[in-house]
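User: Let's play a game. I give you a shape written as C-alpha coordinates, and you guess the letters that built it. Ready? Here's round one.
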Protein backbone atom coordinates (compact mmCIF):
# COMPACT_ATOMS: atom_id res chain seq x y z
CA UNK A 1 0.00 0.00 0.00
CA UNK A 2 1.36 3.47 -0.89
CA UNK A 3 2.40 5.67 2.04
CA UNK A 4 0.86 8.97 0.85
CA UNK A 5 -2.79 7.84 0.79
CA UNK A 6 -2.40 6.12 4.17
CA UNK A 7 -0.89 9.28 5.70
CA UNK A 8 -3.62 11.46 4.15
CA UNK A 9 -6.36 9.18 5.47
CA UNK A 10 -4.77 9.19 8.95
CA UNK A 11 -4.47 13.00 8.98
CA UNK A 12 -8.07 13.32 7.77
CA UNK A 13 -9.32 10.91 10.45
CA UNK A 14 -7.41 12.73 13.21
CA UNK A 15 -8.72 16.09 11.98
CA UNK A 16 -12.32 14.86 11.94
CA UNK A 17 -11.92 13.38 15.43
CA UNK A 18 -10.45 16.67 16.76
CA UNK A 19 -13.26 18.67 15.16
CA UNK A 20 -15.90 16.43 16.73
CA UNK A 21 -14.23 16.72 20.16
CA UNK A 22 -14.06 20.52 19.96
CA UNK A 23 -17.66 20.76 18.80
CA UNK A 24 -19.02 18.45 21.46
CA UNK A 25 -17.15 20.18 24.29
CA UNK A 26 -18.38 23.60 23.13
CA UNK A 27 -21.96 22.34 22.88
CA UNK A 28 -21.66 20.53 26.23
CA UNK A 29 -20.43 23.67 27.98
CA UNK A 30 -23.27 25.71 26.49
CA UNK A 31 -25.80 23.16 27.71
CA UNK A 32 -24.37 23.09 31.26
CA UNK A 33 -24.18 26.88 31.35
CA UNK A 34 -27.76 27.23 30.08
CA UNK A 35 -29.07 24.75 32.65
CA UNK A 36 -27.13 26.56 35.38
CA UNK A 37 -28.56 29.92 34.32
CA UNK A 38 -32.10 28.50 34.35
CA UNK A 39 -31.63 27.14 37.88
CA UNK A 40 -30.09 30.45 38.99
CA UNK A 41 -33.06 32.43 37.63
CA UNK A 42 -35.40 30.14 39.58
CA UNK A 43 -33.44 30.86 42.78
CA UNK A 44 -32.01 27.33 42.99
CA UNK A 45 -28.38 28.34 43.45
CA UNK A 46 -27.20 24.96 44.74
CA UNK A 47 -28.38 23.21 41.56
CA UNK A 48 -26.93 26.00 39.40
CA UNK A 49 -23.56 25.58 41.10
CA UNK A 50 -23.73 21.80 40.73
CA UNK A 51 -24.29 22.18 36.98
CA UNK A 52 -21.08 24.22 36.71
CA UNK A 53 -19.03 22.09 39.07
CA UNK A 54 -16.13 20.39 37.35
CA UNK A 55 -16.50 22.38 34.14
CA UNK A 56 -13.65 24.55 32.90
CA UNK A 57 -15.21 27.98 33.36
CA UNK A 58 -14.55 30.44 30.56
CA UNK A 59 -13.25 33.85 31.61
CA UNK A 60 -16.44 35.49 30.31
CA UNK A 61 -18.45 33.36 32.77
CA UNK A 62 -16.28 33.80 35.88
CA UNK A 63 -18.57 36.48 37.36
CA UNK A 64 -21.60 34.22 36.97
CA UNK A 65 -19.66 31.35 38.53
CA UNK A 66 -18.55 33.49 41.50
CA UNK A 67 -22.09 34.76 42.11
CA UNK A 68 -23.47 31.25 41.91
CA UNK A 69 -20.81 29.79 44.23
CA UNK A 70 -21.44 32.46 46.87
CA UNK A 71 -25.21 32.06 46.82
CA UNK A 72 -25.00 28.25 46.77
CA UNK A 73 -22.75 28.25 49.85
CA UNK A 74 -25.43 30.17 51.72
CA UNK A 75 -28.46 28.36 50.31
CA UNK A 76 -27.01 24.93 51.08
CA UNK A 77 -27.26 25.78 54.78
CA UNK A 78 -31.02 26.32 54.47
CA UNK A 79 -31.36 23.13 52.43
CA UNK A 80 -29.41 21.27 55.13
CA UNK A 81 -31.67 22.77 57.80
CA UNK A 82 -34.71 21.33 56.02
CA UNK A 83 -33.09 17.90 55.73
CA UNK A 84 -32.08 17.87 59.39
CA UNK A 85 -35.58 18.85 60.52
CA UNK A 86 -37.10 16.06 58.41
CA UNK A 87 -35.02 13.47 60.24
CA UNK A 88 -35.50 15.03 63.66
CA UNK A 89 -31.97 16.40 64.14
CA UNK A 90 -33.04 19.75 65.60
CA UNK A 91 -29.64 20.70 67.02
CA UNK A 92 -28.01 20.19 63.64
CA UNK A 93 -30.88 22.04 61.95
CA UNK A 94 -30.41 25.02 64.27
CA UNK A 95 -26.67 24.90 63.59
CA UNK A 96 -27.32 25.06 59.83
CA UNK A 97 -29.51 28.16 60.14
CA UNK A 98 -27.03 29.95 62.40
CA UNK A 99 -24.17 29.14 60.02
CA UNK A 100 -26.28 30.36 57.11
CA UNK A 101 -27.01 33.71 58.77
CA UNK A 102 -23.33 33.96 59.70
CA UNK A 103 -22.26 33.29 56.12
CA UNK A 104 -24.57 36.03 54.90
CA UNK A 105 -22.93 38.43 57.32
CA UNK A 106 -19.39 37.26 56.50
CA UNK A 107 -19.90 37.52 52.75
CA UNK A 108 -21.73 40.87 52.67
CA UNK A 109 -18.78 42.61 50.99
CA UNK A 110 -18.40 39.89 48.37
CA UNK A 111 -22.16 39.99 47.75
CA UNK A 112 -21.91 43.71 47.08
CA UNK A 113 -18.87 43.20 44.84
CA UNK A 114 -20.68 40.50 42.82
CA UNK A 115 -23.95 42.44 42.70
CA UNK A 116 -26.00 39.85 44.59
CA UNK A 117 -26.80 41.78 47.76
CA UNK A 118 -30.56 41.45 47.16
CA UNK A 119 -30.30 37.67 46.74
CA UNK A 120 -28.15 37.31 49.87
CA UNK A 121 -30.58 39.49 51.82
CA UNK A 122 -33.48 37.34 50.62
CA UNK A 123 -31.74 34.15 51.77
CA UNK A 124 -30.79 35.80 55.07
CA UNK A 125 -34.38 36.96 55.66
CA UNK A 126 -35.66 33.45 54.93
CA UNK A 127 -33.25 31.91 57.45
CA UNK A 128 -33.79 34.63 60.05
CA UNK A 129 -37.57 34.25 59.80
CA UNK A 130 -37.23 30.49 60.19
CA UNK A 131 -34.95 30.96 63.21
CA UNK A 132 -37.50 33.27 64.81
CA UNK A 133 -40.54 31.12 63.99
CA UNK A 134 -38.99 27.78 64.91
CA UNK A 135 -36.46 28.55 67.64
CA UNK A 136 -37.35 32.04 68.90
CA UNK A 137 -33.95 33.40 67.84
CA UNK A 138 -33.47 36.76 66.14
CA UNK A 139 -30.67 37.74 63.77
CA UNK A 140 -28.55 39.41 66.46
CA UNK A 141 -28.70 36.33 68.70
CA UNK A 142 -27.79 34.10 65.76
CA UNK A 143 -24.75 36.25 64.96
CA UNK A 144 -23.66 36.20 68.60
CA UNK A 145 -23.84 32.41 68.67
CA UNK A 146 -22.09 32.22 65.29
CA UNK A 147 -19.31 34.38 66.70
CA UNK A 148 -18.47 31.83 69.40
CA UNK A 149 -14.94 30.65 68.68
CA UNK A 150 -14.90 27.82 71.20
CA UNK A 151 -16.75 24.80 69.83
CA UNK A 152 -17.92 23.71 73.30
CA UNK A 153 -19.36 27.16 74.05
CA UNK A 154 -21.04 27.17 70.64
CA UNK A 155 -22.67 23.80 71.31
CA UNK A 156 -23.81 24.91 74.77
CA UNK A 157 -25.45 27.98 73.21
CA UNK A 158 -27.29 25.75 70.73
CA UNK A 159 -28.52 23.55 73.58
CA UNK A 160 -29.73 26.64 75.53
CA UNK A 161 -31.71 27.80 72.50
CA UNK A 162 -33.24 24.36 72.01
CA UNK A 163 -34.20 24.15 75.68
CA UNK A 164 -35.71 27.65 75.66
CA UNK A 165 -37.75 26.81 72.56
CA UNK A 166 -38.91 23.47 73.99
CA UNK A 167 -37.22 21.49 71.25
CA UNK A 168 -34.58 19.71 73.31
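Assistant: Ready! My guess for every position:
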Amino acid sequence: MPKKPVILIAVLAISIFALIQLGSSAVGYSVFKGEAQDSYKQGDYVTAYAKLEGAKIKSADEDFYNRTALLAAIQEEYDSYQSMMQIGKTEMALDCLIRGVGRCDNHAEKAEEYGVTAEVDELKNQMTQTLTDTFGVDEQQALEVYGQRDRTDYTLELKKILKASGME
